[in-house]
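Next up, a specimen:

>
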Amino acid sequence: MKALSFWIIVLATSCQAAWAGAETSPDSLAAPPVQLSSAYVVLAGDMAAIAMMSNLPAARAIAPGIDGAISCAYDRTAGKLVVSVYGDLNGRYFGALRPLERAKAALDYFRTKVLPILEERAAAAHEVIPSESDLRLVYISTFGGLREVVRWEDGKYFASK
């Protein structure tokens, strides 16, 4: 059952990554599907996100502490790497902290312990060194459905409504 819930979260993160920065309009809904054989311009941000995703297992081994799923995507509209951390705020970590503070603590841990490892690997693979202004970190609660709790961007936290 735990493996099934993991794959559901992976599927949800894949959808979230595919829709990062996408706008919904009548024109975009009516667009014909893109063929797999069509040309696609890959940006450095796309490659950095792929490098970060592929190095997550190694980063988890070096800096354990994030139990939930993590996704990385490049938001072409905003020009930011978007890292979504998924977790259950009712879990056993972070003691008596309230949910918002738990989510911030999880993002702080990710930002200070895991992200430097991922950034190092992205730099080694693609010579891309993301700065703080290139990042958006999002904490998504998995308890009772997927719900954004807080995001970190440009050095500041923004609580979701």
Notes: Residues 2-19+42-159 form one domain. The chain has one domain: 2-19+42-159. The longest helix spans residues 99-126.
